[in-house]
Known about the structure:
Blueprint: H1 4-16, H2 20-36, H3 39-42, E1 46-47, H4 59-68, E2 72-77, E3 83-87, E4 95-96, E5 102-103, E6 117-121, E7 124-125, E8 131-132, H5 138-142, E9 156-160, E10 181-184, E11 187-190, H6 193-198
Parallel strand pairs: 1-2, 1-6, 6-9, 9-10
Antiparallel strand pairs: 2-3, 4-5, 7-8, 10-11
Helix pairs in contact: 2-4
Amino acid sequence: MxxxxxxxxxxxxxxxxxxxxxxxxxxxxxxxxxxxSKLLIRCSSIASYLATNTxxxxxxxxxxxxxxxxxHFLPVTQKNHRLLFHHYRCGEHVxxxxxxxxxxxxxQPRQAKFVAAIILPLVGFDAEGNRLGMGGGYYDRTLxxxxxxxxxxxxxxxxxxxxxxxxxxxxxxxxxxxxxxxVTEEGITLFTKRAKFLL
Length: 199
């Protein structure tokens, strides 16, 4: 069994190996699955991300949010290695952060618990909803509040990935935040009851 760093490296390489035509086709299918789900109807606000390198490109879904006036947010990294979310509509200015990831200028930030749904980039995921990220821990720190059993307000978490990024098992730590659902070119996989209601 591969260590998490080796698994992360392997899955990122597999993603790189996708042909340009397959990547375009898979991205189209993933965006269609999201738009055709109940997500944009039942969630009052949605956060996603602007893809970097070989991540799933969600710009088509972001455009639909803009067209339908569904409030959409992008993550902005903070010095404490957490994320805040800023309202974003297609065409607005974005700037590269220290990692080269495009972010909007942070104005009137919103905390994660006040966003109804967050679509996260993934390096890998498993059938239990365990998520393997880039290793920086930004999302886990930002969403740590949701581990509290008394937490009544937390976003639904949807991982965006290609099917080749699904693995048999990802070892999770007690600080890891699991997914409610994952979307790939093959469709949306639901892991929790909340996801079954909202998607």
